Amino acid sequence: MTDYTELSELPVSVQQVKNCAFSSWYHNFQGHTPKAEIIKPLPEGFIRYLEEDGIRLPNDSNFHQSSYYQDIQKSEENEYSYWEEQESEEENEREKSSRERPDANVTSMFPELHEKLKITFQQMGPLTPKLTWSSPKDATWILANNSSKCHEINDVYLLLKASNHITHDLDRAFDVCFDRTSLAESAEKFGHELILRKWFDINPALEFRVFVNDAKVIGVSQRDLNFYDYLLPLADNFKDLIDEFVDEQANSKFPDSSYVCDVYIPRPFDKVWLIDFNPFCRKTDSLMFSWNELLTQSPSTPEDDYELRLVTENNVARFAGKEHSENQVPQDVADAVTNPDAIKELASKWSELLKMQQAEDSSDDDE
Question: N or C: which end of the chain has fewer CB within 10 A?
Fold first, then answer.
């Protein structure tokens, strides 16, 4: 007879989600978390800018002068016969675009914030952005350096605008809360915040997700799901450091007894750096565990041990895969992966396009 385990409920409140907002915990953990600038509240114009379709960038940035984004210029090495024709077409398109969108300077929607960003870049240098709860890690493909390292303002705007994680923060952050109706009934509107962290290089192998239930660590997962052979001999040291951090810092300073935190333990492996807090609920990615597994193996006494789960063998397919690659395909293709009807519709459209292309090719051959 097959044994079944009933899925445990993990209710989460609006307040618990708010407690994980960056500004709610950052000041209590200074000295244990990287330096950051918090801009709060954000102007309504900036929120509207993030929510609108398409990506429009300010004109006053040095973005277009950056070597990352320079257009190819005609030279003796890349001379083509159609350069002049193409330049003429591009000029017509630019003129048409300027007529259709006369107010290209989008910062008129949030001028003070834009100036604040300029000052912050001057003071901090390269940085990485975050909105209230989430970092736009799913959009790093849009920058030439393929990371969230921003060298100037338009890098920030690009990341935020291209990220599904940021859209989630704006539209669906409280969806799983059992008391979310109280937020809608409240006269006080929730205010989002923009966090600008000074950039520093992180070794992804040394990031861990820590699951804490009723003030006890019940599991720790490697965050980057690739194999690193040097991690296993360090596992006991990592657990000692995490236990010390949770007991002496997190449990005493974070308002909830159950939470998920992301930590970083760089060389020489003698200090834990706090990166983020997440609600203790199924919405938070459990990585190498399942949520039911975490809840059914919860330590009943302080003496009970927990598992620090590491990737123990090399997975070539996983290593070759690119994280968040699902965000780099058209939305209809991504949706079709989990929706049979969408797959049929996509296949039908693709078939029609192929027929049209074949008809055009036949017409060209006849001519």
Answer: N
Alpha-carbon gap, residue 6 to 313, rounded angstroms: 31
CA distance 338 to 271: 42
Type of residue at 362: S
pLDDT in tens, the chain (367 residues): 455 556 677 899 999 999 999 999 999 999 999 999 999 999 999 999 999 988 888 876 554 444 344 444 445 544 444 445 555 565 555 554 443 343 457 889 999 999 999 999 999 999 999 999 999 999 999 998 999 999 999 999 999 999 999 999 999 999 999 998 877 766 567 899 999 999 999 999 999 999 999 999 999 999 999 999 999 999 999 999 999 999 999 999 999 999 999 999 999 999 999 999 999 999 999 999 999 999 987 555 455 689 999 999 887 655 445 554 444 455 555 555 455 566 567 667 656 766 676 666 566 556 6
What pTM does this model have? 0.76
Total Cβ atoms within 10 A of residue 291:
18
User: Distance between CA 296 and CA 319 in Å, rounded?
Assistant: 31
The residue type of 112 is E
What residues does each domain of the chain span? Answer: 35-63+106-198, 204-320, 331-366
Strands 127-131 and 36-39: unpaired
In Å, how far from its chain's centre is CA 92? 37
Sheet holding 36-39, edge to edge: 36-39, 194-198, 127-131
Which distant-in-sequence residues (6+ apart) come within 8 Å of 137 by Cβ? 148, 163, 165, 323, 324
Identify residue 29 by its one-letter amino acid code.
F
Query: CB atoms < 10 A from the CB of 304, how many?
Result: 11
Residue 237: in which H helix or E strand, if any? helix 235-245
